[in-house]
Design a protein that fits this description.
single chain, alpha/beta, three-stranded antiparallel β-sheet, 40% helix
Length: 247
């Protein structure tokens, strides 16, 4: 499904978004905002979808990592789980074999900027370059195989200008509704408890496969995935999650 098809699909679903001022939007504000529902024609970014299906989308940021991405892929495979990897363009160029492994595992590869810079202080031209350089890096690895145009801004920070540029390039901006906060390395038990307590139908769950030691992430996934499966959840890509939204 390409970017234009994704946009048309949104016309048929209800999305849950955070309603916060564009210029102050960041990861901390996302956590403490109030929820609001809008039709997809009004929503320019998503954090989850409304669905009666017991499905969640696992997402991993900042990779690929030569050390931790293969370990995470192995855990996903053993648990028959699909995920969406929001990759950094420069790292996709440095580790193309890992991008191929993600795709061979039937996972989705999406855009997380080229250099992992905060977008809110950049010009439109710079934002466009960050988006398109990463897109070219991804498509170059897989012989121009098109991936759905999803974009997650670094640290979840965005403003009106960034949304405009993303829209011009047919991107849907994807945030998250459950934050594992694994980047803090708070301990495997804390990550497991946090994710299991918060996960609901249609959630987008944030993990990381790069940016420091992700050993706790790997260890927590070995507990989280079987438990969520036991609770009746299926693991889908962001594209599949959108398609499973209630009318």
């Amino acid at each position: 499904m390409n970017g234009r098809m994704i946009s048309r699909a949104f016309a048929m679903v209800m999305l849950v978004v955070w309603h916060i001022p564009f210029d102050s939007a960041n990861a901390e504000a996302i956590e403490h905002s109030t929820e609001d529902q809008r039709t997809s024609q009004e929503a320019r970014w998503i954090k989850k979808v409304v669905t009666h299906r017991k499905v969640v989308a696992l997402t991993f940021d900042d990779g690929p990592s030569k050390k931790f991405t293969p370990l995470i892929l192995d855990v996903l495979q053993k648990n028959h789980a699909k995920a969406t990897f929001f990759v950094i363009g420069s790292r996709a160029e440095a580790f193309p074999d890992l991008i191929r492994l993600e795709l061979e595992g039937h996972h989705q590869v999406a855009n997380h900027s080229y250099q992992h810079q905060i977008m809110t202080g950049n010009s439109k031209e710079k934002i466009s370059d960050e988006l398109m350089n990463t897109q070219h890096a991804i498509e170059g690895v897989v012989d121009n195989q098109r991936q759905p145009r999803f974009f997650r801004p670094p640290r979840g920070r965005f403003n009106h200008q960034m949304l405009q540029v993303a829209e011009q390039h047919h991107y849907v901006v994807v945030l998250w509704s459950v934050d594992s906060r694994d980047w803090e390395n708070p301990g495997t038990r804390t990550i497991v408890r946090r994710v299991l307590a918060q996960s609901r139908n249609g959630d987008i769950i944030l993990f990381h496969d790069q940016g420091g030691s992700r050993a706790q992430t790997v260890a927590s996934l070995k507990q989280i995935l079987p438990e969520l499966r036991h609770m009746g959840f299926e693991f889908v890509t962001v594209s599949e999650l959108v398609r499973l939204a209630d009318p």
